[in-house]
Amino acid sequence: MNCEETQCLLHAYIDAELDAMNSLAVEQHLQGCAACTRDYESYQALRVAMKGSSLYFQAPTSLQKRIQLSLPKNEHAPHPARRSSWLWLSAAALLLLLLGGLGFWGITQLHSNSSASVDNRIAQAAVDSHERSLVGDHLVDILSSDPNILKAWFESKLGYSPPVADLKPQGFTLVGGRLDFLDNQTVAAIVYKCGNHVVTLFAWPATQNVELRTLSLQGYYVTHWAKYGMNCWAVADLDEDQLQQFAHLIGQHIETLL
Amino acid sequence: MKKTQVQEHDKCLRFEQLILPHLDAAYNLARWLTHNDEDAQDMVQEACLRAYRFLPNFRGENSRAWLLTIVRNTCYTWLHQQHTNEVFNEEIHDRESEALDPERIYIHTIDQEKLKEAIAALPLELREVTVLREFEELSYKEISGIAHIPMGTVMSRLSHARKRLQRSLANHMNEEEN
User: Fold this and answer.
1) How many domains does one find in chain A?
2) pLDDT tens-digit profile of A173-193?
3) What is the pTM for the complete model shown?
4) Partner residue opposite B41 with nearest CB, options A60, A71, A136
5) Per the CB < 8 Å rule, is A55 touching B165?
6) Which residues of chain A have pLDDT under 50?
7) Domains, chain B, with CATH or none
8) Which end of chain B has the lower number of beta carbons within 10 A, N or C?
9) What pLDDT score was predicted for residue A142?
10) Is residue A171, in this structure, part of any structural domain at all?
11) A189 to chain B: nearest residue by CA?
């Protein structure tokens, strides 16, 4: 083994991740090579220094108490920002318990024939973003009910304009838009209100079509489809029918743009 | 007790056994990723609530790695929302470390404060593998699962991270000597 090969495997060797054959080869090289040995020793010194206790942040003692108090079982002392959602969450958690092995990561397929290729990871991230936007009081970056203003804003930020429709007559009032992060990219999040419910529509360019499918996740419905080059994920705590109607309206809107 | 109460009680017990023992690990990771105590506590609380919710579905054995995955994802989502998205380019870092002659300085005494600063200054992706490997002593396989990257990438990121740390410590020593 030469220096280059040794350097390549040195970190795996230090971390005891090498197989016996390669470990032996590295050791043999180190015995005969002062330069590589110095590298090895200095990395080891670094690792030893990192064991210093001042580098490890212990959780404050109050944190455990705070977490235990915020668990849904403590109905009298819930997390302040989530008071309203606990009943929902407890109900959802119970439902999941009853469904037992059916759910993986809490995802329940509502339509068994569409179980194939739903990207559970994106659904989870979409629900998380939606939930966090409600909790964190960061619903929108730009507040406007004018589709044209929002489209222009997204165009300037993302280089494409997502579907933004005026659906007020149908009961979905446009609130605004924000940038979000899904599927390893920055995407458009368009926020509507239907009564007291917030609907978030995440949209970004798609490379292939996907049939519309709906999932239930953590007490929210998530509807996903991709058509005419746009990936759409809608999340809300509406009824399944209402959310599908919303998806249908957005789909119609995209068709009118063609 | 009613059936639902029994279920909730069981869930609380499992939470106490599987999740709470790893609070320090969770907080340490969140603290290094967010750079401050208040946000780290929020991240850990958020992650624990999610862990509690998903607990009935958790079938694995490694609850520490499972919790750290949730903490890491929670922090990332938050960081992206803070628009502090550091774009990390594996290729650029490769070139960078090739171009610079590795500092062959044997570090006899490493100043803990300087080391702390140097770790904090690492790009997010290098910082997380460093924390998971050096502080939590997780295997490449576990880190690969938590950070959603191949094992080869875990190794190369660790190697970049250590080179960078050495370089900043060496620079610091040079400054002191001059």
Assistant:
1) 2
2) 999 999 888 887 889 999 999
3) 0.54
4) A60
5) no
6) 75-84, 101-117
7) 3-82 (1.10.1740.10), 90-177 (1.10.10.10)
8) C
9) 87
10) yes
11) B81
In a domain, A110, yes or no: no
Shared domain check, A132 and A46: no
Domain boundary among A50, A66, A81: A50
Residues A119 and A46 in one domain: no
DSSP sequence for A144-168: -S-HHHHHHHHHHHHSS------BG
CB A49 to CB B110 under 8 A? yes
Give the gap in angstroms from C-alpha A228 to the nearest C-alpha of chain B. 28
**pLDDT at site B3:** 64
Question: Under an 8 A CB cutoff, do B115 and A105 touch?
Answer: no
Indicate if A120 and A21 belong to the same structural domain: no
Identify all chain B residues contacting A41, using CB atoms and an 8 Å cutoff.
106
Of A50, A73, A89, the last residue of a domain is A50
Q: Answer for the pair A248, A258: CB distance below 8 angstroms, yes or no.
A: no
In a domain, A78, yes or no: no
CATH number of the domain where residue A199 is located: 3.30.200.100
Q: Evaluate whether ipTM surpasses 0.85.
A: no
Which residues of chain B fall below pLDDT 70? 1-5, 83-109, 177-178
From the list A11, A49, A128, the residue facing B159 with the nearest CB is A11
Q: Which domain holds residue A238?
A: 115-257
- Nearest C-alpha neighbor of B129 from the set B105, B108, B149, B106: B149
A15·B134 Cβ contact <8 A: no
DSSP E strands, A9-111: 108-109
Residues of A in contact with B169 (CB under 8 A): 46
Please check whether residues A46 and A166 belong to one and the same domain. Answer: no
Give the 3-state secondary structure of A87-141. HHHHHHHHHHHHHHHHCECCEEECCHHHCCCCCHHHHHHHHHHHHHHHHCCCCCC
Determine the residue among A11, A66, A69 to mutate to test chain B binding: the one whose Cβ has the most chain B Cβ atoms within 10 Å: A11
Taking the CA of residue A2 and the nearest CA in chain B, the distance in Å comes to: 17
Name every chain A residue with its beta carbon within 8 A of the beta carbon of B37: 60
Residue A39, Cβ neighbours under 10 Å: how many? 23
All residues of chain A having their beta carbon less than 8 Å from the beta carbon of residue B85 are 181, 186
Pairing of strands A108-109, A142-143: unpaired
Tell me, what's the pLDDT at A183? Answer: 82
Whether residues A24 and A128 fall in one domain: no
Asked if A11 and B162 come within 8 Å (Cβ–Cβ), the reply is: yes
Model pLDDT for residues B20-70, shown as the tens digit of each residue = 999 999 999 999 999 999 999 999 999 999 999 888 888 878 899 999 999
Domain check: are A21 and A142 in the same one?
no
Q: Which two tokens stand for residue A66?
A: 């705070």
Both A245 and A152 in a single domain?
Answer: yes
To the nearest whole percent, how much of chain A has pLDDT over 70?
81
Q: Is residue A82 part of a domain?
A: no
Q: Which residues pair with A236 in a beta bridge?
A: A199, A221
Tokens at A51, concatenated: 């064991």
